[in-house]
């Protein structure tokens, strides 16, 4: 299957922003080291410093499944559970 891209939008509750930054950095570092990862970038909304986007590119569905089953992904999920005001994940496929 072709490369799959993901845009994950996470809006952090203001009182948890500083606590989330090291968790985001750890997630980025560990995810970039995965065999099926092609890109994993954390970006911040210029107008809302509590709104983050993770821009991901994966080699395949299998690579995403491995990522989702990884210890660092599960740990991040547990850590952020009560710290977000909003979470939206969109899977995309390049067209051209």
TrEMBL record:
SUPFAM superfamilies cross-referenced by the UniProt entry: Dimeric alpha+beta barrel
Every ABM domain range: 4-92
Keyword Oxidoreductase included in the entry's annotation: yes
Keyword Oxidoreductase: yes
Pfam families to which the protein is assigned, alphabetical: ABM
GO molecular function: monooxygenase activity
Highest taxon above the source species: Bacteria
InterPro entries on file: ABM_dom (IPR007138), AI-2_Isomerase_LsrG (IPR050744), Dimeric_a/b-barrel (IPR011008)
Keywords per UniProt: Monooxygenase, Oxidoreductase
Name this protein carries in UniProt: Antibiotic biosynthesis monooxygenase
Source organism phylogeny: Bacteria, Pseudomonadati, Thermodesulfobacteriota, Desulfovibrionia, Desulfovibrionales
